[in-house]
Amino acid sequence: MENGTQDITEKIQELSDLELACFLCFVAEQHCCIVEADVHDLEAVVEELSLICRETFGLTAAILRCGPSTTLDEFTQSILVDDTLRPPNVDSDAVEPKDYLSVPGSGAARHFKSPRPYSQELGGKIANIVIATSLNESSEQVQIQALELIRGRRIFSRKEVHKAPDNLLFIAVQVHGPKRLTLHLNDHIFISHLHQSTDPLVHIGRAGEGDDDDIASDAGSLSSVIHTPPITPIEASRSRTPHEGPFISNDDIQALVTRAAGVSMSPDVRAYIHDLVIFLRTHRAIAGGVSSIATRQLNLLSRVLAPFHGLTFTTPSLVALAVRKIYPHRLVLVAPERERSLQWGSTLQAVKELLKGVAIDDVIEEVLSNVDTPL
User: Which of 109, 221, 223, 318 has the most CB atoms within 10 Å of its CB?
Assistant: First the structure.
């Protein structure tokens, strides 16, 4: 058991930021994340994620390119893959239709009867990983369809019902900017990851030289969930451990799921999370985004991060890291005209000057610095 734990820890240290983001979602059993990038890096990030699906996790991937004219039929057809191409790492039970739907936040399962008019004998299955580009540019109906896929784990076409696999992961890749997903879909996104132009794309450059330097640079970036010390020249000369099949197997994922379930959280850390949520919710620059779903996912991610760092308990530093992944895509900055101090005599011009240049990341860092950290 100890050797198995050491093997997983060593694998984690070799993963890039994008691989870690996907890995976190699988271990947390959450089915969606956002990756934001510059417009000229978008296609490269999509290609990198597609390679990660196949080479790192051994799963099928479907790429959905969205836009204002994307229809519901195009959405449905784009996320289907030929079932004969499904890799051996995928458990056949994961893609078989089930007669129940798990209710989020409850241990029970709600039973239902599948509609008889819909055929279950389909020519294709929903891919394990759906990569949707520019989903925020698509119509509200398409985004509602994406939310239905994430929450209901199924999607309806004109004549068929398609069941999603148990290990579904929906990745929305979009240009870093002010335009967001619809409110409810955005709130169901588990974590966000900002890909900088300087961040390496390891799989695309695998055939080139300096891949390990790229991984070291990636692990040292501010957006990484795993921070490693600078590597020595001997360590830098090593490449990823040769392996047969996917680098991260389903057994690896289940091992971390088991370890995450046993992570403990002290009362002081619970109080710290509560204080962070209150400070974010009452910050004068924030108009919304600190929802109950976000709070539940903050608690979840704070626990899940522990086994990634070889711990059996949650620390304040892991909570701070979780805050930086949970809230950037959720928080909404207040408009100067709606800032609350206007009710108490502040002038609009003074408020505009105060909020000028304030970004969501600035608010998060200010809150983390103002809330007392438990010893």
Answer: 318
Q: Torsions phi, psi of 276, nearest 5?
A: -60, -45
60: Cα within 13 Å, side-chain hemisphere: 26
Instruction: Look at 2 and 207; give whichever has higher pLDDT.
Output: 2
Tell if the pTM clears 0.85, that is, is over it.
Answer: no
The label of the residue with tokens 């290609």 reads: 47
Given CA atoms 129, 133, 135, 141 in this order, what sign does their dihedral have? negative
d(CA 49, CA 27): 18
Q: What is the percent of the chain with per-residue pLDDT over 90, rounded to a whole number? A: 65
Where do the domains of the chain lie, and which CATH numbers do they carry?
A: 2-226 (3.40.50.300), 262-370 (1.10.8.80)
Closest alpha carbon to 172 in 164, 163, 180, 160: 180
Q: What is the pLDDT of residues 91-117, one digit of tens each?
A: 444 433 333 333 344 444 433 333 333
Show the tokens assigned to 20: 């870690």
Long-range contacts of 26-30 (CB under 8 A, 24+ apart): 26/57, 26/167, 26/169, 26/253, 27/253, 27/256, 27/257, 27/260, 27/304, 27/307, 27/308, 28/190, 28/260, 28/300, 28/301, 28/304, 29/257, 30/190, 30/191, 30/297, 30/300
235-256 b/e (C-beta count within 10 Å ≥ 16 → b): eeeeebeeeeebbbbbebbebb
